[in-house]
Specification:
Helix content is 29%, strand content 19%. It has helices at residues 30-37, 55-69, 85-95, 117-123, 176-183, 206-213, 226-237, 244-251, 264-269; strands at 8-15, 22-27, 44-52, 104-107, 113-115, 149-152, 157-163, 166-169, 172-175, 199-201, 204-205. α2 packs across α3 and α7 (226-237) crosses α8 (244-251).
Length: 290
Amino acid sequence: MSKVSGKGFVYILKDDHFKRGVKIGRAHDVDKRMKAMRTANPWLSVYIKVETSKWVELEKAVHNVIKLVAKTKQVKESEFYLIEPEKAKRIMLEFAPLFGKDDFTVYREDGGVLLSPRQKRTNAPMPSRPVVRARPTGLSALGIRPGEVLVFQPTGAEVVVRDDKSVTYKGETYSLTGFTKKFIPNPRRSRSYRGPKFFSYRGRNLLAIRREAGQESFESGERWQGKTQLAKLIARRGGNEGAYGGILHYFSKRAACGKDSKWRLPLEAAGLAFDANGYVVDWTVAKNPL
């Protein structure tokens, strides 16, 4: 079993002879790895390497982006990807800080230091006031880290998590709601969507994962007063605020909400329970803030 503890390197290799793209890899000792690989290909060289304690996670993230976002093709029967070295470098430098802003050092092709923790601290602006970190309420609270892959369920498109509340797709960054608005088939006239509802992680919908984790929302909660305001809030979260009248019917037990109804999941996410016939038991127990 290979050793993965402690700090290591994630590197980008280029082939100076065949010009066939780049190879992404990781190693504790890049020089030793290069010596072994050059016996088969003496034209290999290190384009850039990043030293970090999160080297396993960083390599996974860079691989995912190059394969799924940049839509690059792997050279047949090799570990090389058809992407310009400079573009692969930009991807590496974009994701490295996400695994610890002061936990990585970047080395140039000639071995010199391109960026170090000391340089980052020196160049960083002084904060005007102390930073208070809130309890995480986004993807990280669900155990989903940068570099992981989410699936947009309406089309099957795969996106890569960039940070707590955004994803990367074909080189562009989106919030989950922003991605849904742009890529959902047959968009609604209102263009109002609750992004996490349309994504899955390892085969499970994000809203279902969130409920199990006891996480109330990906965004700040909204307070409501009265059943009309609650109905409008749930309808808006479900993508159609104009449908709040139908939700009021559920609250007053004038209509049942079956398990196959599009409003069943949003109502359950609001903390509401249903009886055996599909009627809302008590709308006043809904989460507040929601």
